[in-house]
Amino acid sequence: MLIGFYSVKIGKRQPHGTRFLLFLVLLLLLTKAAKAQVPAALVGRWALKQITFEARRPLPDSLQAKLFYSPAGETNAAVKEGSLTVEVEFRADGTYDYEMARQNQKEPFYAEHGRFEVKNGRLFSYGTTDDHSEPTLDKQTIVRLTRNVLQVEFPIWRPEQQVFQQIRYVRVSGR
């Protein structure tokens, strides 16, 4: 038996309308719960302070030399001497800005914007830059997060080599 859509009597309370309203409320609550998980301590502007490597098993000299003369090593030296600044700003709404700038230049030479979230101590980012590369902050484990220090790490090379790059940021006070 087919019942036409217009055969519903107006004025009579229908349980389907109530179910639909409950469904909408539940959907709204789930959407709010699914929003980016942002630890309050992470919100703010951070400046790169140091890049280090940690090998959790012995490495041959050839691999140690690769670490020392890597682009990360060059970046670390430039940050220490003050000719390069790397900053990231995390916002409570789950968005971020990541910028690299050379000394005495007003505009950054690299900028990345996107969304992020933290799940089980791991930082996941979804960049919106046009260069189609993997976002800079994606899949990093938060090792330490205090009021003034953020330290993240991620594995490099093959996982069985147990070598991690660790990046230490310090909070930038008022800007």
Tell me about this structure.
The protein is an alpha+beta fold and about 180 residues long. It has one domain (about 40-170): Lipocalin (Beta Barrel), CATH 2.40.128. The protein has three helices and eight strands; from the N terminus they run αβααβββββββ. An eight-stranded antiparallel β-barrel has the order 1-2-3-4-5-6-7-8. The protein is globular, with a radius of gyration of 24 Å. The termini are far apart. This is Lipocalin-like domain-containing protein.
Keywords:
disordered N terminus; Lipocalin; globular; alpha+beta; eight-stranded antiparallel β-barrel; 3 helices; Lipocalin-like domain-containing protein; 175 residues
Spans where pLDDT lies below 50 across 5 or more residues: 1-8, 24-34
Strand content: 35-45%
Strand order of the largest sheet: 1-2-3-4-5-6-7-8
In DSSP terms, counting alpha (H) and pi (I) runs of 4 or more, how many helices? 3
Radius of gyration: 24 Å
Q: What is the CATH third-level topology name?
A: Lipocalin
**Which bin fits the share of residues in helices?**
10-25%
CATH architecture: Beta Barrel
Sketch the major β-sheet. Answer: 8 strands, antiparallel, barrel
Structure summary, number of beta strands: 8
The separation of the N and C termini measures: 70 Å
In CATH's first tier, which class applies? Answer: Mainly Beta
Spell the H/E element sequence.
HEHHEEEEEEE
Mean pLDDT: 80
How many discrete domains?
1
Which structural class do you get from the secondary structure elements?
Answer: alpha+beta
3D shape: globular
